[in-house]
Amino acid sequence: MPEVMVQKLPLQVALHLGRQLIAAAGQPGLVLPSEQEICEEYGVSRTVAREAVRILEGLDLVRVSSGRRMELRPPREWDYLNPLLIQMLDPVDVRQILIDLHEVRLLIEPAVTGRAATMLSAEGLARLEACLARMHELEADPDRYLEQDLLFHMEICWAVGNRVLDRILYSCRWLLAASRKVTNLLWESLAAVTAEHEAIYRALAARDPSAAEAAMRAHLEGSARAWEFEPVVIEQAVQASKAKALSSPEAESSVG
Fold first, then answer.
1. Which CATH number is correct for 9-77, 3.40.50.150, 3.90.190.20, 1.10.10.10, 2.60.40.10?
2. Is beta strand 71-72 parallel, antiparallel or unpaired with respect to 62-63?
3. Which pLDDT score, from 0 to 100, does residue 131 have?
């Protein structure tokens, strides 16, 4: 019988079962366990089994119909922005998710930065300048540096006043943090990363959309080689971000 922790038992069952389902995805004739079979396999109550299935359903991993066994949904429908799902994936899949995220950033962030050059308020520029000052101070403290790095990029996003974009970035905030942890491994010193952000800031302060867009694109393209790291290296860098995300109040409420 698989071991599960007494604490948050439905979540532990869901994580173990989710890994099994993902590993079995694509197998012909795959039959998922019933609620009763989950109870028997894990030695848990029907209430716990039902809650574990609800968690998997909330990740868009399975589809549940009244009176029928749950069905595994196609991988393209899974909620890859949820740290619970990422915790179920193997390191190779995690690396690919972060590569996909980086490609999305390349599509969106340079254009957003160019637009922000014409829309940033004096207060917004002051906040960006304060972020840069803190980044200089924290170059020997990667975790706290990361917080300012994320805030710098979010300030640029907020400047354009697009609520849909705000929510998209908020939804993948922990993945963005994980991505930064990996790309920052490229540099012997975070001073080089700060310098790239300073170039973005100068273009924004000059109200030069083309220069701002180019500076952001250069920053992102320069980080792309991080995805050549071995999957295990990326997985190690991601673990802290997953743990922090899973311990947040939002994660607690998402699993009941």
1. 1.10.10.10
2. antiparallel
3. 97
Q: How far apart are CA 130 and CA 83, in angstroms?
A: 30
Q: Please give the Cα distance from 68 to 34 (Å, whole number).
A: 8
Query: Facing residues of 62 across strands?
Result: 72
Q: Round to whole Å and give the CA distance between 240 and 195.
A: 26
6 confidence band (pLDDT: 50, 70, 90): very low
Say how many residues make up the chain.
Answer: 256
Return the bridge partners of 71, or none: 63
Q: Residue with structure tokens 């310098």?
A: 195
Around 184, how many Cα atoms within 13 Å sit in the side-chain half-sphere? Answer: 26
Q: What is the pTM of this model?
A: 0.80
Query: For the ranges 103-112, 125-134, 180-189, which has the lowest average pLDDT?
Result: 180-189
Domains 9-77 and 84-254 share a fold: no
C-alpha 120/C-alpha 126 separation (Å) is 10
CATH code given to domain 84-254:
1.20.120.530
pLDDT of 5: 41
